[in-house]
Amino acid sequence: MVGTMTGWVILAAVLAVDGLLFNAYALEGIRRSADVLTRFFYFSSGTTMVAAIFVSMRLLAEERQAGTLPLLYASPVQDVEIVLGKFFAGLLFLCGLTLLTAYMPLLILVHGKVSVGHLAAGYLGLFLLGSACVAVGTFASALARTQIVAGIVGGALLVALLVTWQLSRVAEPPFAGLFAALALHNLHFVPFESGVIHLRDVAYYLLVTWVLLFAATRVVEARRWR
Amino acid sequence: MIQVDGLTKYYGARAAIRDLSFRISSGEVVGFLGLNGAGKTTTLKILAAVLLPSSGTVRIDGMDVARAPRSLKQRIGYLPEQAPLYDEMTVGGYLRFVAELHGVPAARASTAVEAVEERTDLRSAHSELLGSLSHGYRQRVGVAQALVHGPSILLLDEPSKGLDPAQIIEMRGLLRSLRTTHTVLVSSHILPEIAQTCDRLLVIRDGELVAQGTEHELEQRLGGSGSVVVEVRGSAAAAEAALRGVEGVRAVTVVSGDEDRVELRADAPEALRPAIARAVLAAGLDLLRLDVGQDRLESLFLRLTGGTEA
How far is residue B208's CA from residue A52's CA, in Å, rounded to a whole number? Predict the structure, then answer.
């Protein structure tokens, strides 16, 4: 990722969009510092999700496209290690990218007050959301033969996970509760935006990450049969 | 030792290989011969544990490859049909990555990379980007990545594919140099290419092993014993009659020529060349050339693999 142009292009695009949104949206009008920070984490969650899909769509699909997967399969590395290695590489890049946005909250600090707890909670939320989204992308990348298809599948899965909260509004109980609990953003990320950490939300993101990485590992294992 | 027993692989309803069984002893260089689509690549993928078989087993020194413990995979070097290269990496960086991937400790990786670059004549390309290399160099890096972790078994899928004649000679030399130190299974669809470097040949056709043995044994088994090409100055009819008179010559064909230069092909063992020479001279003809038929290997290959003989 770092050795190719793609990573740098994603990094530059995300920072540019974040910067624009920060000026146009978070700093709009006169607000309390905490509100600005809440808005910053809100739009950053959007750019993080999009960046996660772009970063992860190539993780395994590109190996298959370039014909380098046999090198990994023939090595002493296990399938689960291949998936985890790819996942952590993508997540590490996304973390680096997310940390580069820290100058925006620091700008708030110049003219106002920023709670370190709020800042830490917001970035923890971005990290957990990013982790779940990179896992979604890794799973899609394991399924697809090309990066483009992986991007489309990953994007579709992400949108499906996002809009389950809409389903919860029209579904009858107990499905309404189930759909609301499954939603990737609304119920689980909003507390992080405001600087609140619920163990329930942390567990949710870790569970989504685990389930999708488990599924990705099974897909990689199954490819040895075809 | 590599033991393959009843190896079968289905892709959907189609069997790519069926009930393959063979043995390869330590230190042997074995050629795996077959037309495109015969099942060579599938077999090598299964031997390298890249693919799992539908049935059958591959054992290396008694250990099942499908269950492949790490230590077993460290002993195998595999070059797929397409060299698995990351274009954005340098040759040295890539080989180091592959070495570490196969469990070579970081402290020893540099030495391993230097050694394999020396062996495959890649020292000058150490800092080159893989994406900028020619096909020949890429193939050479492919062989280097299979060797870098010091495996005792090498599985090479068409290492000479797409190489020019000079590069093919280099590759042949490299394979010869591995003869004593490695057990090698090298696939090809060019018999003359691997016949020169291999101790033994395995011939696969439509996913089934149809023959195995040395080139000479295969030739004997097929009932063929080669051909001799003769070029004389004089009458074609007299030359043909002279050759037919030699005991052991099964058939004679006039290939081309006029009165100055006539080329004939005699279906006969190459050992009959002295007798043929004497017969030509006794008939009062000038002997211009006497050679082993160059089409012998191609003909043998086509008969073994079921290709169409021209």
Answer: 47
Q: What is the DSSP string of chain A?
A: -TTSHHHHHHHHHHHHHHHHHIIIIITSSS--HHHHHHHHHHHHHHHHHHHHHHHHTTTTHHHHHHT-HHHHHHSS--HHHHHHHHHHHHHHHHHHHHHGGGHHHHHHHHHS---HHHHHHHHHHHHHHHHHHHHHHHHHHHH-SSHHHHHHHHHHHHHHHHHHHHHHHHSPTTHHHHHHHH-SSHHHHHHHHTT---HHHHHHHHHHHHHHHHHHHHHHHHGGG-
Cβ contacts of residue B49 below 8 Å, gap of 6+?
Answer: A73, A74, B65, B66, B68, B73, B76
From chain B, pick out residues whose CB is under 8 angstroms from the CB of A226. 11
Asked if the C-beta of B284 comes within 8 angstroms of chain A's C-beta atoms, the answer is no
**B51 touching A, CB under 8 A?**
yes
| Measured distance CA(B64)–CA(B55) in Å, rounded | 13
Number of Cβ within 10 Å of residue B7's Cβ equals 24
Q: Which of B52, B54, B96, B129 to mutate to test the interface with A (most CBs of A within 10 A)?
A: B52
Q: Which residues of chain A have pLDDT under 70?
A: 1-3, 26, 30
A vs B: CB pairs below 8 A: 55
Contact residues for A76 (Cβ-Cβ < 8 A; gap 6+): B70, B71, B73, B74, B101, B102, B103
Question: Is the Cβ–Cβ distance between A1 and A89 less than 8 Å?
Answer: yes
pTM, two decimals, is 0.81
Residues of B in contact with A225 (CB under 8 A): 51-52
Of the candidates B50, B88, B98, the beta carbon closest to that of A70 is on B50
Work out the angle between the directed axes of helices A33-56 and A186-193 (0-180°, nearest 10).
Answer: 130
- Distance, CA of B145 to CA of A171 (rounded, Å): 56
Which chain A residue has its CA at the smallest distance from B42's CA? A226
Give the sheet arrangement for strand B14-24, strand by strand: B14-24, B2-11, B55-60, B63-64
pLDDT tens for A59-91 read: 999 999 999 999 999 999 999 999 999 999 999
Residue of A3, A4, A68 lying closest to B85 (CB–CB): A68
Distance from CA of B171 to the nearest CA of A (A): 21
8 Å CB contact between A51 and A101: no
For A117-143, how does the pLDDT look when each residue is reduced to its tens digit (9 = 90+)? 999 999 999 999 999 999 999 999 999
This model of the complex carries an ipTM of 0.82
| CB of B22 closer than 8 Å to CB of B202 | yes
Does a cis peptide bond (omega within 30 degrees of 0) precede residue A174?
A: yes
